[in-house]
Every structure is written in C-alpha cells, then in structure tokens.
Amino acid sequence: MNAKKVSESMVEMRELVLPNDANILGNLLGGRLLHWIDVAGAMAASRHAQSIVATVSIDSVEFKHPVKVGEMVLLKARLTWVGRTSMEVLVDVCSENYLTGKTMFTNRAYLTFVAVDENNKPVPVPGLILETEEEIRENQEAIKRREQRLLRRNASAGANCG
Ligand SMILES: CC(C)(COP(=O)(O)OP(=O)(O)OC[C@H]1O[C@@H](n2cnc3c(N)ncnc32)[C@H](O)[C@@H]1OP(=O)(O)O)[C@@H](O)C(=O)NCCC(=O)NCCS
What we know:
Layout: E1 4-5, E2 11-16, H1 30-49, E3 52-58, E4 72-82, E5 86-97, E6 102-116, E7 128-129, H2 133-155
Parallel strand pairs: 1-7
Antiparallel strand pairs: 2-4, 3-6, 4-5, 5-6
C-alpha cells in the first residue's frame, strides 16, 4: 500500500443551519454539530484508507460560540496520524454569516477511525506523508493524544451494564 499525503484526503463540508438543527433559542444543537464533525472526519479517513471506517473515539469537544439558525457551518477535516489500522482526524469548524461575511472559529475536534472490512474486522491503512511543519507538529501531538486515549480505553475495559 502506497503512503499518501495529508492533502490527498482532506475534506471540506458546508452545512446551512436550519430550524430543525437548533434549540428554542435558535442556536445549533451540539449533537447535530457532532454528527457533522463525525461525517466530515469519516469522509477524510475513508478517502485515505479507501475503506469503510468506524468511529472509535471522539475527544472532548468545546463549544466556544453559538451558531445561529441561518448561518453556515464550514467543516475542514484532515488526517494527522495513522497507525496500523487506525487514523486520527482533526476537524476544524467555523461558522459563517453569509449576509455580513463574518466568520468565527467555533470548534476543533480530534476523532479516531478504524478501517474495517465488510465483516467489521480492522484492516491496514496506508502510511501518511507529512509535508508541512504544521503537519509534522500535529503528528507529534497526535502521538501523545493516542497514548492518553489508549490509557482511557484500558481504564474503561472492565465497565459493564450491570
Ligand atoms: C472498530 C472495531 C471493529 C475495532 O475493533 P477492536 O477490537 O477495537 O480492534 P483492535 O483492538 O485491533 O483496535 C484496532 C485499532 O483501533 C485502535 N483503537 C481501538 N479503540 C480505540 C480507542 N478507543 N481510541 C483510540 N484507538 C483505538 C487500536 O489502537 C488499533 O489501532 P492500530 O491498528 O492503528 O494500532 C470495534 O472497536 C468496533 O466495532 N467499535 C464500534 C465502532 C462503532 O460502532 N462506532 C460508531 C459509534 S457507536
């Protein structure tokens, strides 16, 4: 499998916030935004892996500014790290008021996806070619985030519904 550049799988996705996406104050629901973040991230991971992917982790997400009904949401997703079968994807979210042209950075989220086959079994993914200083820095930070995630995964391994 040939390694791929970060730029080869980047995804930009735009959504218009409609009344059904919002709470009674007219602010975008957090759950709806998480769904869009998941979809944008999954598309970037799928493009890199050329495979079906499953979300295994979404790191904590902060909602910095409310996004209002009628505004647009721009999501930019790119890979930061790959393992054997898993990939970390960074998703940046900005809101845009197209009437005024004002844009606002609202969120950054890190998600982990695993490439799977039709039987939901993990499959290897191509390596990641880092070209810019920012990509190298993100990759180094991704390694630390992964260590923390695996610690959390181990800590919750014994949890059950009983
Ligand atoms: C995806 C799935 C098939 C992987 O199975 P698994 O038994 O966890 O497989 P493994 O333990 O071999 O892990 C596969 C890779 O994922 C990574 N991984 C698994 N869980 C992880 C987590 N919580 N955080 C970070 N990485 C994780 C492993 O480190 C491994 O990475 P590597 O191959 O790059 O070294 C399984 O976890 C699954 O089906 N999960 C549910 C996915 C889903 O339904 N998502 C929608 C939301 S509910």
